[in-house]
Design a protein that fits this description.
The complex is a heterodimer of chains A (208) and B (336). Chain A is 69% helix and 2% strand. Chain A has 208 residues and is mostly helical. In chain A, helix 1 crosses helix 2, helix 2 (18-40) runs antiparallel to helix 3 and helix 2 crosses helix 4. Chain A is globular, with a radius of gyration of 21 Å. Chain B is of the alpha+beta class. Classes of the chains: A mainly alpha (208), B alpha+beta (336). Strand 1 (105-108) of chain A pairs antiparallel with strand 1 (51-54) of chain B, so a sheet runs across the interface.
Chain lengths: 208, 336
């Protein structure tokens, strides 16, 4: 599937293009569910919340061109609705509520891609899935959603420093989980060719 | 230090480093082969983590969104239930405990998965459900409050009609109903209709149980079953039990505390058998028990825990009942 720049989609949507709307939905809906489920504590209201954001988006499509950044707009809308939901439907007994487990399944995107190591991808996926919930969410928002540290901090009401800490922790944990596997595949690489490459490119640079 | 390096590598890969940090990390990478190796392995992980989250019913959800957005009566989804009417309406409340069975709850879930908001001709219905180990307090559109116990589900219109306030429900809930004599509040659960004339009560109807209980705390309610004309009026302190198979009612009184404790976060055991204790704990904490041998010791266990962690509860039970336990995520292993 071709990659669609969200802001181009937005222009099409504002003209009433349903296919574009569907593409935007496919692109953001699952991640927003994950995000909202984290904020409200379960998947069930999250679907309701995120759907309602898309409903009002389609209703107000003619005004959409005024939105600068659709990604941030969607996340912020979901954040506000989730907080309202949380305020009005407070889980009334603490200690028995598990806030951290939205019941969603993570899958490898494009496992058939040739240039990526499918087996490693599967291992990475598992290791990401095993990260502590908040670290996992932060890592996914930065890595998969391409959100900025500052944006993630704002969306989760934490400091940029805390985002850094989560990212560092994610890297530490992923490395320790994947190191044996990475070393193994590193061995199969051919260091000689690497060095040769290096020499050739150095020479190249030198000549010019 | 290693943690900080990992933070910087992540920052670098995410393109978030400041110029100084960038300089630092570049120098660090070239400092040694070991550092380079670390950087490359993180980069490798980074490149190979193209994941996304899967949603099974996306066509269905998308169509519903379009339908909803294009419906003529174009009002926003009221998901926050924040329309609590002015305080004066909550003058006379009814407290009612209702409990209804489980099979229906699951059958319902499976036949209509993900159907939180169902478009009827004019009315939008809201479904709320809570899983094992969870409890939820919700506000209905008329300002009535409902405390849902674990594994319960309620469905109600986004806006009540002028003639009746109808809700359907399975599981266990405590209702505090806003009094409005002109608009009866009717709860449909299994084969029972409970009409609230202004009160609070507990309703219990887990489908695995072959009976439905309505326990009235204050106010008054009337209960009817399908195929029976007679309405049973309840007085505060009375409990009526409907036996599904026999289609008959029995009435008795109830101990307020034992019926409503759950709503106040009190996990109450009263001469409970081993099976009852395990089942209560599973539902309350959303865990699964696994025993080392297939046995059913004879227990008569009584205790009370308020907002207590599972570990503390188990510690206390194991003290008198002599077993070892181990909690691993959502599983509890008991060794006798």
């Amino acid at each position: 599937m071709a990659y669609f720049e969200p802001d181009i989609l937005l222009k099409l949507i504002s003209k009433g293009d349903k296919d574009a709307f569907r593409k935007l939905f496919d692109r953001f809906y699952p991640e927003l569910i994950n995000y909202s489920a984290y904020l409200v504590g379960s998947k069930f209201p999250a679907e309701e919340i995120v759907s309602s954001v898309f409903v009002s988006l389609w209703k107000n499509r003619t005004k959409l061109t005024k939105i600068n950044n659709i990604k941030t707009y969607l996340y912020i809308s979901v954040k506000h609705k989730s907080y309202n939901y949380h305020r009005d439907n407070q889980a009334f007994i603490s200690g028995t509520i598990d806030l951290d487990e939205p019941n969603l399944k993570m899958v490898v995107e494009n496992p058939e891609s040739l240039y990526l190591d499918a087996e490693l991808q599967e291992k990475v996926l598992q290791s990401i899935d095993n990260l502590p919930p908040k670290t996992k969410l932060v890592f996914r928002m930065i890595k998969e959603e391409g959100l900025k540290y500052r944006e993630v901090a704002e969306m989760l009401d934490i400091s940029v420093k805390t985002v850094e800490v989560h990212m560092g922790r994610a890297v530490t944990k992923l490395r320790s989980a994947l190191d044996p596997y990475l070393n193994q595949s590193a061995k199969s690489e051919m260091p000689v060719s690497k060095i040769a490459n290096f020499i050739i490119s150095s020479l190249f640079l030198f000549i010019f | 230090m290693e943690e900080r390096i990992n933070q910087l590598i992540a920052k670098h890969l995410a393109g978030e480093t400041t110029p100084q940090e960038q300089k630092f990390i570049e120098r660090w990478i070239t400092e040694s082969d070991h550092n380079l190796h670390i950087y490359q392995s993180v980069e490798n992980i980074w490149k190979n983590s193209k994941t996304k989250i899967k949603v099974d019913n996306s066509d269905q959800v998308f169509n519903k969104i379009l339908e909803k957005a294009e419906s003529k009566e174009s009002k926003p989804l009221n998901i926050s239930s924040s329309t609590i009417p002015p305080g004066f309406r909550i003058a006379a409340t009814v407290i009612l405990f209702l409990a209804a069975g489980f099979i229906a709850f699951y059958a319902y879930k499976y036949t209509r998965p993900e159907d939180e908001v169902i478009a009827d001709d004019f009315t939008q219905f809201v479904n709320k459900s809570v899983g094992k180990g969870q409890k939820l307090k919700i506000h209905l559109p008329d300002g009535s409050k409902v405390w849902l116990n674990s594994e319960s589900e309620i469905s109600y219109p986004e806006r009540f009609s002028d003639t009746a306030r109808n809700v359907t429900f399975t599981g266990e809930a405590f209702f505090e109903v806003v009094s409005d004599p002109k608009v009866p509040f009717i709860i449909r659960t299994g084969a029972l209709n409970t009409s609230v004339l202004g009160t609070s009560f507990n309703l219990r109807h887990y489908e695995e149980e072959d009976h439905i209980n309505v326990s009235l705390v204050s106010g008054s309610v009337s209960v009817t079953s399908d195929g029976q004309i007679k309405a049973h009026l309840l007085k505060p302190g009375e409990n009526i039990t409907y036996h599904n198979k026999e289609n008959l009612f029995t009435k008795d009184t109830f101990n307020l505390k034992s019926v409503t404790a759950w709503k106040d976060g009190i996990l109450l055991f009263e001469n409970n058998s081993y099976e009852e204790v395990i089942h209560k704990l599973e539902r309350w904490y959303g865990v699964e028990f696994i025993m080392n041998k297939n046995m059913q010791p004879l227990w008569q266990f009584s205790a009370e825990f308020q907002n207590e962690y599972l570990e503390i509860v188990l510690e206390s039970i194991s003290y008198s009942k002599k077993f070892d336990y181990k909690i691993d995520q959502k599983k509890v292993y008991l060794t006798f």
